[in-house]
Amino acid sequence: MSWQTYVDDHLMCEIEGNHLTAAAIIGHDGSVWAQSATFPQFKPEEISAIMKDFDEPGSLAPTGLHLGGTKYMVIQGEPGAVIRGKKGSGGVTVKKTSQALVIGLYDEPLTPGQCNMIVERLGDYLTDQGL
């Protein structure tokens, strides 16, 4: 299965008539493996800061998580595995696998829990596959 298929069929899937606003699978080095057409143009330093927070949990909390120039307030996650962010009625979930970051962006009416489920389920599957 291609990386784009994972994004199109698994991350951008419909749940109760709703879906993520954007999604991507990005290598730890910041290289884009696949992304939705709606995924924002991000800066390499934004991915570096996310990777640093996985190594040093809490490092993003003071400054926020930035992605595509949008700042998200960092909320509860799983240190070293999941970072979650919130901005207004939307937010972001980032799941780290052994080789990649699975990223999902959402806005209402999709709920934070639905976004977490979509992103983390695929991340867990990729981790189980050694990816």
TrEMBL record:
Family, per entry: Belongs to the profilin family.
Any GO MF annotation of the entry: actin monomer binding
Assembly and binders: Occurs in many kinds of cells as a complex with monomeric actin in a 1:1 ratio.
GO CC annotations, alphabetized: cell cortex; cytoskeleton
Record-linked InterPro entries: PFN (IPR048278), PFN_euk (IPR005455), PFN_sf (IPR036140), Profilin_CS (IPR027310)
Keywords: Actin-binding, Cytoplasm, Cytoskeleton
UniProt xrefs under CDD domains: PROF
Function summary: Binds to actin and affects the structure of the cytoskeleton. At high concentrations, profilin prevents the polymerization of actin, whereas it enhances it at low concentrations. By binding to PIP2, it inhibits the formation of IP3 and DG.
Localization in the cell: Cytoplasm, Cytoskeleton
Species whose genome carries this gene: Populus euphratica (Euphrates poplar)
Protein name: Profilin
SUPFAM superfamilies associated with the record: Profilin (actin-binding protein)
Pfam families reported in the protein's UniProt record: Profilin (PF00235)
